Predict the structure of Mothers against decapentaplegic homolog 4.
Amino acid sequence: QCLECYQELLRRLHIGKGVQLDLRGEGDVWLRCLSDHSVFVQSYYLDREAGRTPGDAVHKIYPAACIKVFDLRQCHLQMQSLATSAQKAAQMQAAAVAGVSGLAVGAPRSISAAAGIGVDDLRRLCILRLSFVKGWGPDYPRQSIKETPCWVEVHLHRALQLLDEVLHQMPIDGPRAVE
């Protein structure tokens, strides 16, 4: 038990004053690192800004840095685009299976990829994940955030509300040919 107490003490020392999350406007989020050690953030906004594949990178935020980590408008546009693409791809697949002719033929891979987009994929756009002191992912020895000593997942309420609206606005009618 003494070892556990010591490890907990080390974690707390490394976290220090932690981070400050600021909500600006209707839903943009800025992160300020108050710790003496870097924090690591998974952010679709930062992925886009860095030209990385969404969800591919973990971004290192240095002590005293203040950086925008979430943009509500961009997230809303991205979820609308992905939801529309997924719906069209599913309609095209259903029409192809039903043997409907006259379909606009797209690249099969992009259709399959878009059809594979689910609600959980869209929900991930509304989440920030951050780890104190240790990074994870393809650039680090730890593959999962769950392997880091201390981490937090922030679910962004306004973004989740917008996702709910996007999903409710989608038509639910059966498969049909895409014009």
About this structure: The first strand starts at residue 19 and ends at 24. The chain has one domain: 2-169. Residues 174-179 have pLDDT under 50 and may be disordered.
